[in-house]
Design a protein that fits this description.
Length: 345
Amino acid sequence: MAYTAEKIAKELQGEVLGDGSITLTAFAPATTAKPGDLTFAENETFFLKAEQSAASAILIDGPFTSTKKVLIKVPNARIAFAKVLPFFFPEKKFAAGVHPTAVVDASAKVDPSAHVGPHCVVSEGVKIGANVVLESNIHVGTSTTILNDSHVFPNVTIYALTQIGQRVRIHAGSVIGSDGFGYVFDAGAHRKIPQVGCVIIQDDVEIGSNVSIDRGALGPTTVGKGTKIDNLVQIAHNVTIGEHCLIVGQAGVAGSTKIGNYTTIAGQAGVAGHLKIGNKVIIAGQSGVMHDIPDGAKYLGAPAQPDREAKRQMIAIQQLPELIRRVKELERWVGRAPNSGVPGE
């Protein structure tokens, strides 16, 4: 689709510096931009590259000027970048209705505006809201609810009793509501503890591909509204994740841990079970969290510690080779001349 620079500026609550009537037909990085493209620059280095590119206009938020390009000045270029991309790359629209190969139980309630794609299975008692998209090969278990405008990508499995809010996105291959890892040792064997809880996914959550979120043993496993979960993440049974959190790829959270709002768990970090992680906490990548973390703290390392303490220890470890060398030198002096005074005399 094509938009004038003036139209885009209005949508982004920005202003045009230059010819507002210029037509923009696509968005591209400066390295590949062509005439008619819009690009963006959030710092001076990016701006210089954008100004030298073939792009017709540049999205900016700094005090930049140009005699070569039309500029669209906005409060925050990166936020504007996220807002403007859907103009040029709108998501695919899915026709309402149920595909002939889908299996929908007679007791399920599917809104007429929803899309149920090829080879989906919608079990008994399921409720599918308005404009929900189930792409293909999706299993929706008994008594699950999926509310309005949610989008489930191919090959997702949603177990029974799951509650999914509005505008939730679940990417391909994820499993929601599988059994939690619960066993008790009995008579020389591991006896399974039945997992009879559920999973609750609140509004505006996005779940990446190949994520596993286990059902609670008794109560729910809960993901708070606005939280974003990256690919290949494991969330164990009875975990509670607060609102607007970021859980980055290959992270894992063990059972019954509670995570506050606006907390970030970086890639490959692991959080032990039955812990309390506060609000606005940052856990660095590959950290191993073994204890509760208070609000606003930054932790890193394995075992994870407050970041300043962990950094001091890392620096000390880097100094160990020099320290060992100096100790050996002192030992040689002591062994060679035990009564001669201090080394170097």
